[in-house]
Amino acid sequence: MISMSDEDQLKALRKRIDTIDEKILGLISERAACAQTVAQVKQKSLPADAKPVFYRPEREAWVLKHIMELNQGPLDNEEVARLFREIMSACLALEEPLRVAYLGPEGTFTQAAALKHFGHSVISVPMAAIDEIFREVAAGAVQFGVVPVENSTEGAINHTLDSFLEHDMVICGEVELRIHHHLLVGENTRADKISRVYSHSQSLAQCRKWLDAHYPNVERVAVASNAEAAKRVKGEWNSAAIAGDMAAELYGLTKLAEKIEDRPDNSTRFLIIGNQAVPPTGDDKTSVIVSMRNKPGALHQLLQPFHSNGIDLSRIETRPSRSGKWTYVFFIDFFGHQHDPLIRDVLEKINDESVALKVLGSYPKAVL
């Protein structure tokens, strides 16, 4: 039972919270007004037929990192950064609402990654295939696209790598998403009669051991996306879907089992693609595609400049080249910006020895 003195203390604390909330609201409104003024200044400084650039990835990354450095708790750094991410997203929408394409339908992990990176004030546009995302960005129908590029369990997403071979696109950023898979059922599902599980092929692979242990005789049906799986089971009585929280909420499904992924550290990395180059932030990555001559020691020759200049590689993948049988291209991610002197030296040396070098972009390292 709460005593009178405790009740008085609670009333005082609630009054203080109300006062703080009013101050927060005033400051957010002030920030939003500043964002509107920024838009006006940018518009005035350009020719009448030119379109200003409102979204600056390097600026957004700096703000979030700066906030995390200033944070003294009790909220942890990522939670504070997510709050500011949404404030920045809402303020940016006052300047110009961003249109961002993602691998649909609604409720996919790619949409979750898009909202994590850009905030919920963007206009997210679902696409049926990864190649369509590239085409929409290239055509200018959307400002940015979000595509999966690698999973910590299953490795590279080859459709994305192949799309970079076919399209001239700039990587503007990256986002990492912790992937939690759940076994979902609809309101009509008879849990003891499940004979089929729908999911994306990658998700089925990421939950293989769990399925072997709990549903060894159930048919596993690969579909275009986890959201498509969730959509299918909504009206079925004998099937379940493997998907995430967003799909479960969107389609009104129940979690029969939670976090069924085989590896607890299961994560997917997504790339932000667009048409604008990103200036250095001091904490960047660069991605390139290199085609080497088919000769002994070609890979060693490719990697030697990185070793000589002390440049850390974060990923290297190989894909068959479109130019000939048994020839390959290398996708390489490394730390640093293409404008850094050491990186420029590496790229010049690679360009001298390779058949072709394509810099996909330099971009801020993922903050969230």
Walk me through the structure:
The model has no long low-confidence stretch (mean pLDDT 92). The chain has helices spanning 4-44, 57-70, 77-95, 109-118, 130-139, 158-166, 201-206, 208-214, 226-233, 245-250, 298-308, 341-353; strands at 99-103, 123-127, 144-151, 155-156, 170-178, 182-185, 196-200, 219-223, 239-243, 254-257, 267-274, 284-291, 313-320, 328-335, 356-364. The chain is an alpha/beta fold. Helix 4 links the parallel strand 1 (99-103) and strand 2 (123-127). The protein starts with a helix and ends with a strand.
Give a short summary of the structure.
The chain has 368 residues and is of the alpha/beta class. The chain has helices at residues 4-44, 57-70, 77-95, 109-118, 130-139, 158-166, 201-206, 208-214, 226-233, 245-250, 298-308, 341-353; strands at residues 99-103, 123-127, 144-151, 155-156, 170-178, 182-185, 196-200, 219-223, 239-243, 254-257, 267-274, 284-291, 313-320, 328-335, 356-364.
Strand content range: 25-35%
Shape: globular
> Which structural class should the secondary elements be placed in?
alpha/beta
Nearest-integer average pLDDT: 92
Tally the beta strands. 15
Main sheet? 6 strands, mixed
Helical fraction:
40-55%
Low-confidence stretches: none
Distance from N terminus to C terminus (CA atoms, Å) equals 43 Å
Domain ACT: 287-364
EC number: 4.2.1.51, 5.4.99.5
Pfam family, one: CM_2
InterPro entries: ACT-like_dom_sf, ACT_dom, Chor_mutase/pphenate_deHydtase, Chorismate_II_sf, CM_dom_sf, CM_II_prokaryot, G/b/e-P-prot_chorismate_mutase, Preph_deHydtase
